[in-house]
């Protein structure tokens, strides 16, 4: 398992790094062949909680399994323990759905014609300058071929409202999103010349 630990503001002590490595190396008990684990740590000041440690852990397993959890706690050790517990539950839920009932059914998704309605920007309060939204974070990820039902499961594991994947049947990039009615929509772009 390749473990990468990043601390955005502040340096982690050797003891803290050792605790992170020991705790997260136990995930091998629940998920075979973990390729990479990325830990992002950040100390931040919260109005209601004071100084807290925010820890986000992303686990990339065999066959493109991607599990992510984030927790905040006043102590780094508590945040790591909470993230570990959350990841353990997510992995067990994933294995329960896929391995006990057999492999996923391979089914194609339905194309949804209507796109989700755009969110209108909130009007600026009086006395404040209007601030335009800007990109604050960029993420890179590997796109692996999968079927739509696998993409739904990956999106749920990540806790996101959308997911980009390459369709295993067509080879096209698709966008899966959660609709307001609780169902899912699938956007399949057509490239025109």
Explain what this protein looks like in three dimensions:
The chain has 193 residues and is of the alpha/beta class. It is 24% helix and 30% strand. The chain has three helices and eight strands; from the N terminus they run βαβββαβαβββ. The strands form two sheets. The protein has a four-stranded mixed beta sheet with strand order 1-2-3-4. Helix 1 (14-25) packs parallel to helix 2. It is globular. The relative contact order is 0.12. Residues 103-124 have low confidence and may be disordered.
Which terms would index this structure?
alpha/beta, single chain, four-stranded mixed β-sheet, globular, 3 helices, 193 residues
Q: Assign an overall shape.
A: globular
C-alpha Rg (nearest Å) = 20 Å
Structural class: alpha/beta
Number of strands: 8
Instruction: Count the DSSP helices.
Output: 3
Low-confidence stretches: 103-124
As laid out across the biggest beta sheet, the strand order is 1-2-3-4
Percent of residues in beta strands: 25-35%
How far from one another are the termini?
Answer: 44 Å
| N to C succession of SSEs | EHEEEHEHEEE
Mean pLDDT: 79
Secondary structure: helix percent: 10-25%
For the biggest sheet, the summary is: 4 strands, mixed
């Amino acid at each position: 398992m390749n473990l990468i630990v990043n601390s955005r503001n502040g340096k982690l002590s050797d003891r803290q790094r050792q605790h992170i490595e020991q705790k997260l190396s136990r995930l091998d008990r629940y998920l075979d062949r973990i390729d990479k684990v990325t830990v992002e740590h950040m100390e931040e000041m919260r109005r209601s909680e004071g100084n807290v440690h925010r820890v986000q852990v992303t686990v990339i397993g065999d066959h493109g399994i991607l599990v992510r959890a984030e927790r905040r706690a006043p102590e780094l050790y508590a945040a790591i323990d909470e993230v570990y517990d959350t990841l353990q539950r997510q992995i067990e839920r994933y294995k329960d759905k896929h391995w006990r009932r057999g492999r996923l059914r391979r089914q194609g998704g339905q194309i949804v014609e209507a796109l989700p309605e755009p969110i209108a920007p909130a009007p600026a309060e009086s006395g404040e300058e209007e601030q335009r939204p800007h990109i604050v974070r960029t993420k890179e990820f590997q796109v692996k071929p999968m079927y739509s039902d696998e993409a739904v499961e990956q999106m749920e594991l990540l806790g996101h409202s959308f997911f980009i994947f390459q369709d295993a049947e067509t080879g096209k990039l698709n966008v899966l999103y959660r609709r307001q009615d609780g169902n899912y929509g699938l956007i399949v772009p057509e490239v025109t010349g």
